[in-house]
Amino acid sequence: MSKSREMDTLADQAMPEELAQTAKRLDCESIAFTYNDPVIFIEYAVDTAQACKELGVKTVAVSAGYISAEPRELLFNNVDATNIDLKAFSNDFYKKICGGQLEIVLETLQYIRQETNAWLEITTLLIPGKNDSDQELESMTQWINDNLGVDVPLHFTAFHPDWKMLDIEATPHATLSRARAIAINNGLHYVYTGNVHDADGSSTYCPNCHARVIERDWYELGEWALDEQGNCSHCGTAIAGRFVSRPGDWGAKRIPVRMS
After folding, report:
1. Residues 6+ apart with CB under 8 A from 128
2. Collapsing DSSP states into helix, strand and coil, what is residue 39?
3. What is the pTM of this model?
4. Fold held by 9-201
């Protein structure tokens, strides 16, 4: 390898402490482990999470939740929040599409909710004809209510044709709205539509007075009706979540960071 290539390779590497220090220097409030699943680089993710904690930087694990008991405990007790992809609510889907088992993911969800302090959210990518039937959505959202509680946020996101599923149409907006209505009807308080511009479906509403307390359109924030304690400013009800006292204004901006 030439000296210039070697230097470029080294510049793309970062020790956990360097990541934490860079985030702190740039006033980043959190680091997310995603693309790929942190389960496959768990030691590095945990070391980074611990380095971040020392500097007051939060960490988020975005994962499929397909992990055995011992590493599950290690990962989710070291991060501040996690979003788990619940890819479907049928063993048939997990076996044929994912090559896995639904039960392992459900165990992960219950473990995070019941045994850790990490903030938990769930995302389900709705694929037309694969995991979007009323029956499956009813079963999924009832299970979440019964086993995780009504305050765990659930995101229904839109599929678009790609790679090995080019033969399947993109998810209609109506499917996302239907899924959201089923979840709300089953008692869930915080249900969202994603991968689409939908301010109504992407916003947070007070479960008591039903006023909109956080307006969202993709990455953009609009109306903010929370007090400094994270309560609804209309009726005083506590809104489930981890909130700062004032909303951010970052929006969809992206800035590349080069580690040196």
Report:
1. 159, 168, 169, 170, 171, 172, 175
2. helix
3. 0.93
4. TIM Barrel (3.20.20)
